Amino acid sequence: MTSLSVTAAPCSCACSCExxxxxxxxxxxxxxxxxxxxxxxxxxALQTAQSxxxxxxxTVIRRIADGFGKTVSEVxxxxxxxxxxxxxxxxxxxxxxxxxxACYVRGGKEVLDAFRKKLxxxxxxxTPDRQFSLEVGRCFGACGMAPVVMVNETVYQxxxxxxxxxxxxxxMAGAAVAGEKEHA
Amino acid sequence: xxxxxxxxxxxxxxxxxxxxxxxRQIGVTIPTLCNLEKREAIGACRVCxxxxxxxRTLQAACSTPVHEGIIVRTNSTLARAARRQVLEMLLSEHDxxxxxxxxxxxxxxxxLADEMGVSRVPFEGLRAKRHIxxxxxxxxxxxxxxxxxxxCVTVCGEVQGVGALFxxxxxxxxxxxxxxxxxxxxxxxxxCGQCAAICPVGAIVEKSCIPEVWKxxxxxxxxxxxxxxxxxxxxxxxxFGYEPGTRVTGKMAAAxxxxxxxxxxxxxxxxDLTILEEGTELLTRLKTALVDKQPVALPLFTSCxxxxxxxxxxxxxxxxxxxxxxxxxxxxxxxxxxxxxAQKIGRKPEEIVVVSVMPCTAKKFEAQRPEMxxxxxxxxxxxxxxxxxxxxxxxxxxxxxxxxxxxxxxxxGLSSGAADIFANTGxxxxxxxxxxxxxxxxxxLPVANLHVTAIAGLGGVKEAALTITGTKPEWSxxxxxxxxxxxxxxLGNTRRLLEHIKAHxxxxxxxxxxxxxxxxxxxxxxPRFTDDSVRLKxxxxxxxxxxxxxxxxxxxxxxxxxxxxxxxxxxLGEKSHHLLHTHYKHKAK
Lengths: 184, 589
Description:
The complex is a heterodimer of chains A (184) and B (589).
Chain A: H1 21-35, H2 42-53, H3 58-68, H4 72-81, E1 93-98, H5 101-105, H6 108-119, E2 132-137, E3 149-151, E4 154-156, H7 164-172, E5 181-183
Parallel strand pairs in A: 1-2
Antiparallel strand pairs in A: 1-3, 3-4, 4-5
Helix pairs in contact in A: 1-2, 1-3, 2-3, 3-4
Chain B: E1 2-6, E2 9-13, H1 19-25, E3 49-52, E4 59-60, E5 70-73, H2 77-93, H3 108-115, E6 132-133, E7 139-142, H4 151-159, E8 166-168, E9 175-177, H5 194-198, E10 204-206, H6 210-217, E11 223-228, H7 249-259, E12 263-266, H8 267-290, E13 300-301, H9 306-315, H10 329-345, E14 352-358, H11 362-367, E15 373-374, E16 377-378, E17 382-385, H12 386-395, H13 417-420, H14 427-441, E18 461-467, E19 482-489, H15 491-504, E20 510-514, H16 532-547, H17 558-568, H18 574-580
Parallel strand pairs in B: 1-5, 11-12, 11-14, 13-20, 14-17, 19-20
Antiparallel strand pairs in B: 1-2, 3-4, 3-5, 6-7, 7-10, 8-9, 15-16, 18-19
């Protein structure tokens, strides 16, 4: 699957232009067509839709609800239940700090506060330069490495609050971040 | 059958029964705040915890099926303590400002706390940030009182097929509400109020207009009159301790008079009027189709139920041309009161205030529709639910149970039995058939006791067929025609019927739709709690009200005949068109 933080995948014409909205919706309709009759198809359809659009705007949620024969309130309810989904555009880099039980007891809250302070945004917000979005995760399945932070597809383990400033600077500079990390 | 032991009592219950259902069979009550009859148990509220021998933890009685040899203890110390603790946790999050809550007298959470002997809430819980949604004329939502039992989600989605409400978000932050945290006016809510009728607490209630009504009554310059829907007389008594299904028509008239209304009238009067207008509309459409061979929208749908109108405008715009152009009896009453009646008593329409008492919350919305006016004067000024009327009667210190039986006033108070049955699913159709058949053949509808039993009762979609023979000369085009009718109640049933018609066409000529399960007797504004046993008792009360009258057909109502003679001239005439008919428009979802 494409990266979680992309705003839009490139179009198929091999040029560098952004695909038009009509093209994105045509792709969404294909996704709906593929999944709408499959049991449990809603969540993979939402995941794919989010990878197409970068987020799940109301128009997309309505289209999916219609296609699946579900109410808008139900699909919006599913979207807002899972922290993976977002109703708002995200920045270039999505920082997700795990606050699952293991990470929480190993200081995940302090790590989150460090990101808040460094990026000067709250959970669910995006920096004005659209470089970073900050969100909370509920267990990435890496409890042995707690506290865990995911930046886009990369998992950072045993993150210390004191290291957060350096991490952000290095991501901004496009450099690899030193320290323990694994690719998801 | 399965052998079950509950509190040392051995019983046999059908396979698939839940512990809750099994316990009820032997008169053991297990409390629940989320369970709804005929709906899948969701185990959301957790107050039905019981001890099951051999199970590792306490089980939710509503969602645990019995198995052979199961041994259940519902009233052990462990089970009672666990239930009390669940209740304490619910209370710790709940905005328990009971004295000022609309539900102070009939709150299920409060009643349960009393039953369980909760004397204090030991936890200092976080409270949800309060948001009051009073965006619609019908309903008020207060999420700080919500206990997230999801009954409203079930009734809105499964029973009504609307799905305006769903849990949004997660955990403590969950809000039961419309998508994108909108208010109700921002989504396709039909304002039927079934959510308010089943909410165990005060999280969804009707928007009250009691203060405005008192103010109007106390203004000496205004002539304030009241109309009561047929369904009120079969339910209002429940608010004063009477058994469901007790008819209180006479006491209701007496109470309204003591509240200070200048005229105590009856929506039944305009229900009779509706039958003449709508029946004529049906026969006219049939003539256009059969004699003139012109395209015309058939089947005709009834238009009395404003939740159904909203539903069609949101979800089934293709059927809007099929809906009768008749205003509902509530609106017809207002239009007649502010024209014909105003002339009769020599008052200006602006000086007359029309108050309705309705079993319904959508009627509050309907009264505020911009097109529901005559020459800029609103047909109906204020709409009270049955529950609000009961509140006013209590507030005024009227001893309802001691009231004598009184009559409605003339000239808008007289009605036939056909008007009474507008309250029941199938009733509008039966009333229309009583009149239409007699107009066309000159003979009485040939069914026992004037009841069309095939379309009565709580079946979801009902149908009947009637072959017309022996027509009068002017209706000879209907000779031998098999008139086919259908009746649905509850918008979920209605959605299924309409989807079927969309796919396969309609064999029907006339279809009655009522928004709420059971019809208006089960409306969103009726006394709580309404289940099928209560619905059936109210339905029976309405039929007995009908049968107690000599005059049981709308066209026999002498005061309606006088109204036509003195004022309206004829059904579907120019005055009727201006006063009594309306139009519909597609609303974006």
